[in-house]
Design a protein that fits this description.
Elements (H helix, E strand, L loop, with lengths): L2 H16 L2 H16 L2 H16 L2 H16 L2 H13 L2 H13 L46
Length: 148
Amino acid sequence: MSPQERQRILEDFQRWNDLPEARRRELQDAYQRFQQLPPERRDQIMNRFRQFQALPPDQQQRIIENQERWQRLPPEERQRIRERFQQMTPEERQQVQERLRQLPPPAENPGGAQGFQGTPGAAPRPPRRFPPGLNPGASPPPPPPPSR
């Protein structure tokens, strides 16, 4: 193992130990749920994470903001959007996706249409660091050590 790999592992363990107990339990539960998925679904999830990780930071940020914005919508609104999207023809869906891709990032679009990119003028967040053992570019981690 290279010194860089050892250092990364040491830093991951330190970050893990610094997490509050409740957060560690959440991550352990998520890991267990992930392990119980069929192998095809786990592979699909890992491929999505790798695709996300390969994106430039600004696109990653936009995806994160979109997901946060989606989660803030009332359930009825999310259901309405899902139903409308399902009723669209493949051509209409493609047109909507193309229009959304052409929208400028929030800072370049003050007061304008937001699409799914979040709040205009919001301060950019630093690149997201994945919790120890949940780096999508790596192999699935071993189970974390038992809590004390």
